[in-house]
């Protein structure tokens, strides 16, 4: 019975997201991605579940595998992992990193969820979602309101984008690998300076994630941050980070 319900639920999941491709600053970007099922109503970010389940059973080195796979895809417009072609959106990219580990991030989907929200629910059930602290390579990072999903001109679209944490620099800047309109890229996000693009010396702290469009102001990665999610085991070499 559960398998039939899941099959029905997946048909209601919009499997995608869209962000711009900021290069050097603000620019006008016309979205090319059309969601399969555009919601007409406000979408809220689900609360984190209190009854997290047992840790996922994955092979040793799962975090390294996810990160190295993401790094190998940098600069590519198509996501192909182990001979399998994945879709051209952020959730398909993350799915391509976790699926070879034996993790299906969409199994907690509920009717009406987009795929980013479904992954958030999975992380809430099988791992831990957090906003503060220091993420680890291989963690997921979620963003909200990266584009106007329901096209009503308001910021009421909930979770709209997801990526993978590649690393964290000494100053706290998080390196995120994700899929945007132009392909797989690396962006930066420093939550201690959420509205600052660069330091006085020119070091990049945040990238533009929501690009400028009619009726929409550009927003930096930190401004649209929704939460980190840790799902994979923390191995000894990462435990002290």
Can you tell me about this structure?
With 241 residues, the protein is an alpha+beta fold. It has one domain (2-19, 62-233). Helix content is 17%, strand content 20%. It contains four helices and ten strands. It has helices at residues 2-10, 62-73, 90-98, 115-126; strands at residues 79-81, 84-86, 128-130, 140-144, 159-168, 174-180, 183-189, 208-210, 219-220, 225-230. The strands form three sheets. A six-stranded antiparallel beta sheet has the order 3-10-4-5-6-7. It has a two-stranded antiparallel sheet with strand order 1-2. The protein starts with a helix and ends in an 11-residue tail after the last strand. The model is unreliable at 1-16 and 18-40 (pLDDT under 50).
Summarize the structure.
The chain is α+β, with helices and mostly antiparallel strands. It has four helices and ten strands. The chain has one domain.
N- to C-terminal separation? Answer: 43 Å
Tell me the radius of gyration.
Answer: 17 Å
Order of helices and strands: HHEEHHEEEEEEEE
- With strands numbered from the N-terminus, the spatial order across the biggest sheet is 3-10-4-5-6-7
How would you describe the shape? globular
What is the percent of helical residues? 10-25%
Given helix and strand content, the structural type is alpha+beta
Share of β-strand residues:
15-25%
Give the overall pLDDT as a whole number: 81
Number of domains: 1
Number of strands: 10
């Amino acid at each position: 019975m559960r398998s039939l319900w899941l099959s029905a639920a997946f048909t209601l999941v919009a499997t995608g997201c869209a962000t711009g491709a900021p290069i050097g600053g603000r620019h006008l970007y016309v979205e090319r991605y059309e969601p399969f099922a555009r919601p007409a109503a406000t979408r809220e970010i689900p609360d984190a579940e209190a009854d997290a389940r047992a840790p996922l059973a994955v092979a040793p080195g799962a975090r390294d595998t996810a990160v190295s796979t993401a790094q190998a895809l940098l600069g590519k417009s198509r996501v192909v992992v182990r001979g399998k072609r994945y879709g051209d959106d952020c959730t398909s990219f993350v799915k391509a990193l976790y699926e070879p580990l034996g993790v299906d991030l969409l199994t907690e989907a509920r009717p009406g969820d987009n795929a980013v929200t479904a992954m958030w629910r999975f992380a809430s059930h099988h791992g831990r979602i957090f906003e503060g602290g220091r993420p680890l390579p291989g963690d997921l990072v979620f963003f909200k309101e990266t584009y106007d999903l329901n096209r009503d001109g308001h910021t009421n679209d909930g979770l709209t984008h997801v990526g993978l944490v590649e690393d964290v620099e000494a100053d706290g800047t998080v390196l995120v690998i994700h899929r945007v309109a132009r392909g797989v890229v690396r962006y930066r996000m420093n939550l201690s300076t959420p509205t600052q693009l660069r330091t006085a010396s020119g070091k990049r702290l945040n990238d533009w994630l929501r690009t400028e469009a009619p009726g929409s102001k550009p927003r930096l990665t930190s401004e649209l941050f929704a939460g980190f999610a840790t799902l994979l085991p923390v191995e000894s070499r990462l435990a002290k980070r």
